Amino acid sequence: MGTVLPFTAPKLGNSNTLIDGHADPSPSFVDFLDSMSLAVQRIITTYALFDGHHVEDYGAVGDGVTDDLAAITAATVAAVAGVKGSNKVIFGTKTYVLSAQLTINLAGGKSIWLQGAPGKVPQTGIISANASGTILLSTGGNDAIVIYSSAGAGDASNCHFTIENINLVAQGAAGNGLKIGYTGFQFGGGNKDCVIRNFGVHQFPLDQIRIINSRNILIDNVVGTQNISGTAGSAVLKVEAETGQFCGDINVLNCELVGSGTANLHTVILIPSGAGGQVRGIHFEDSTIYYGQFGMLINGTTANTQLGDIFIHGCQFDGINSGSVTTAISIFGFGANTVISGIDINNSYMVAWPARAVDVQNFGGGAVISNVNISENYINVGALGIVVNGVTATGRITGVHINHNRFYDMANTPITIQQGVTDSFITNNGHITTGGGVAGFANLINLTNDCDWLEIHQNLGRATGAAILNGTTGINLSIANNFAH
Q1: Contact between residue 201 and residue 208 where contact means Cβ atoms under 8 Å apart
Q2: Rounded Cα gap, residues 392 and 367, in angstroms
Q3: Which of 164, 176, 240, 329 could cysteine-pair with 206, CB 3.0–4.6 Å?
Q4: Which of 306, 253, 250 is nearest to 278 (CA)?
Q5: For residue 73, what are the contacts with CB-CB under 8 A and spacing of at least 6?
Q6: What is this structure's pTM?
Q7: What is the spatial distance between Cα 443 and Cα 414, in angstroms, rounded to a whole number?
Q8: Cα gap 216→16, rounded to integer Å
Q9: Is 226-485 CATH 2.60.40?
Q10: Domain extents in the chain
């Protein structure tokens, strides 16, 4: 823990030193070497073997009972200040108690690295005998950990942090688990990613991870579980931009995010919550999302906001036919000058959602939804598959591509296109049955009301009737080479 062994500088000589039987002609050079040796000794003593700020060195106990908040706070303050040249806080294989909020302010372009001991993440959110590594037990206060910058955007753009090998568990806490950013301030990593890796967060009544007004964040190998009694509107992961703020450039990789299946609790929420807010550049890859009322809610229901460049690739959305679970991915637009554009959902697996796999709805009011690509997904859900619906006469949706999706053992319509959908393509989709006794649906595609400039080509479906397509309402429709079997 920063202990240094004694070091004795070698005696290099003085003006009486003999070299080849003669007096040293340059005694001042030898004295210089002596002084340099002492300087090197001081550097080694101060820095060379200092591996970081161990919380035990600041008084932490880690017995799961003693309040370690003051000790851990002192360690983080020293790390942010770069004491002894290190920004690292090191935790042991212990359970540390946080009786109130741990706040880390990186104002001034500072950084911090919270490093726990590798171990097993308690995926149920309950500390048990088989859980290991570093556990931070939040027993009170508001949010458990808040990392932010109190300075302006220019300052905050240089802040960055790393959190790894830590399990954060609620036991009486009242707020969010891990909160990145702060109301009214921009926070981000500049040219460096902020990193949350090998991290577990469980059972907080609000969001397990809330990212607000922040950017350049990598979330890798994170497990989060939601509190079944959580506050309405909360999520396992919430990404939010407030009035006039930006939140984005966030990559979510190899994560397991588990909702509670309770009404109004969602697994992932992406939302600009104030006028002028933007949520953009969110990438989900190789992650599993479970059980929320909505697995992922892309919520554009605030006027004058933007959502876009959202990429969902190789993910698994597992629902369950119980509780208030409904839809895997919901994309909602409503409000003047709200723009949702550039949503890409591909190579993902959606199974056992009772209502819908993907639901795209524009409730009008001046909102625009465009450039939505839903391609090469595997879908097996209880009711409707993909629904694209303008809802009202002013709810226009344009540039939707539904291509190469495979629907398995569907008992209802795989693709529903309703009013207000224009300039869109539905091609090369198919339905397959595995002989499991599913009666099949009436049509592969239902097309209703005011649609314009649609291309519906080369789709293949198992239909109980002769037609694969129900309805041809609209103008400028190109329908060709679709087959039922």
Answers
A1: yes
A2: 11
A3: 176
A4: 306
A5: 102, 103
A6: 0.87
A7: 8
A8: 62
A9: no
A10: 1-50, 52-175+182-187, 226-485
